[in-house]
Amino acid sequence: FLALKIANVNWQSKLNKAAHHTSDYSSTEIILRRGQAFSITLNFQTAVQPEDNLTFIASTGPSPAESQQTKAIFSISEESASGWSATHEPSEPSCTDLTILSPANAVIGRYKLKLQMVSGNKVSSTLLGQFVLLFNPWCPVNNVPDSHSYRKRREYVLNDSGIIFQGLEKHIQQEAWNYGQFEEGILDISLAILDRSLNHREDPAVDVSNRNDPIYVSRVISAMVNSNDEKGVVEGKWTGKYGSGTNPLQWSGSVTILRKWYRRRYKPVRYGQCWVFAGVMCTVLRCLGIPTRVITNFNSAHDKNVNLSIDKYIDISGKTLDLTEDSVWNFHVWNESWFIRRDLGSFYDGWQVLDATPQEKSKGIYQCGPASTKAIKEGDVNLDYDSSFVFAAVNADCVTWIHHSNKRKERVYSDTRKIGKFISTKAVGTNSRVDVTANYKYPEGSLKERRVYKKALKLLGVRSTGKRTKITRPRRHSSVARGQPAQKPSISGKLILDASPVIGQDILLTLALRNLMGDFKTIKVKLRASAVLYTRKPKAEILQLSRSVKLGSEEAKEISFKISYSQYKNSLMDDRKILVTAVCKSKRGASLLVEKDIVLQDPFLTIKVLGPTVVHKPVNVEVTFTNPLSEVVTDCVLRAEGSGLLKEQLRISVARMAPMESSTVQFEIIPYKSGTRQLQVDLVCIHFSDIKGFVMLDVAPA
């Protein structure tokens, strides 16, 4: 007998990539999705005889084993216990066309495929090649979004750019983000993230065998995207000083961050805040084939001890005091991924919340989720994973106290900022905002909403280590908070912004006060303006004023004041958020707190593409922007990026801009992918926080 020898292997790359929706990956590797057949052609040097026995071995991970589902042995046309199978297609004598099918619950990752041939008494083994196996949202068993789901899969798995909503509930802003999950090297980096996890270091074989489950994989990634615990991808920082790294506001996408982490041998990239963690996690999960989107929750509670009450302390001048670890952020960004919950039951299938921002530890590690949105809506706060923390983020109550002394605190009336408003995500197929608040809670004030809230409180009260102490022990004053509502003041007040302020200009404000009673009173007003982070944590004081206002019976008065550019310019170099508070006090009667969040407007930036965009055809882009300041600005850098348009981030220096001067910069792009593409431009400058813009381009095939 002559031993069978393989002349060559044709992995039918183009055909398989198209069938498996993996044509977009910038990689020469064979990339396939589980639970779906792929074709492979083997050319033998001699014709295969009927009695020749061909057996395939597919294996993944450091120590493949059939018992761990990380190794499969299967023959042609035979059912294998592993769920893998191979079938013969009609073909020429010396050439064998095969169809190989992996099971729908196969472990994902990089595989080797070997062929063992027994021809007479000769046994030979050949490595046919390597392939990467990914999750498969197109597989009927992995049932993803409902019937009209083709567009949803395209959005949540294949779209490599998107919008992350930020700002304030009354002033929601669109920020473009380059996910770039198909860019060169990103798939390798995503697989490397799994291999760097604590679980993998502890027991590589068990870790790899668990990679058939999106619940497991997504939870590991939520831990790995932040640098806490295991030197993950991004290091968080919320202080407002970023000298030793990049200001989180200056990132425009995940590709630069992931490549930096990988190229610098897994050193955490500095710095990120919530939208950066969520953007990076969306890239990695989409890259691995898990449908994922980015969610923004406005007025988001960070409820450290999960008692559904956020206590905030101020002094009599309105200054925020650091007496509690709870906070309400202007917005918080997390992810949702779509998969089924065999661990909880089919009612909880669908969108699952994952949060890579390192806020609180879960089972000893900074990770959060997956928490079913259905569990959050129904108040099932005892269900895995971390549904109580997410429930609090969208449902907690906010209570403000004036701290007079250690012995005396006064619960102060303020028009409570409702927690969990305008929960937002990008629409399928367009950049508009979709409100998904109804996925998280029943209508505010409805009977159902109150029932869910009571159920959650009850579950949180007893959900502890047998002792009813872990969470029910009231925080200092929170028992008072629940029992004694704030006294309603006899005056009302509102802070009104006179115009949309632009960076570089003075900010004009009016405090409108009204006496609600028929008496005469003198109101002492303490006004305060601070530069804040989006977490509402103060970075710097800008202004303090005291005024005395006399109000007659039911009289209304307005106090106008301004915050000049010279007062705020040094505090707002890397951000543009201001919190203004007014504490209003009369001799008798309760105090009133009036608050206003201000985000200074972006100076305008326009992007013009000078010609049609076609794959492999150079085209010029013209960007025009204005120095918003009445002073000379030097050393600015214009940065541009966009998946399918620019392989690396482009940087152009803008040496000098005169006061209020407009500048135009031109650069060339050579698109390398067709379809809808997002080009982002960012003017970075040390004198003011960066000015961003983006444009969507339809790129025609070559």
UniProtKB/TrEMBL annotation:
Coiled coil: none annotated. InterPro entries: Ig-like_fold, Ig_E-set, Papain-like_cys_pep_sf, Transglutaminase, Transglutaminase-like, Transglutaminase-like_sf, Transglutaminase_animal, Transglutaminase_AS. It catalyses: L-glutaminyl-[protein] + L-lysyl-[protein] = [protein]-L-lysyl-N(6)-5-L-glutamyl-[protein] + NH4(+). It holds the Pfam family Transglut_N. It comes from the Eukaryota. PANTHER family: PROTEIN-GLUTAMINE GAMMA-GLUTAMYLTRANSFERASE, PROTEIN-GLUTAMINE GAMMA-GLUTAMYLTRANSFERASE 6. This is protein-glutamine gamma-glutamyltransferase. It comes from Charadrius vociferus (Killdeer).
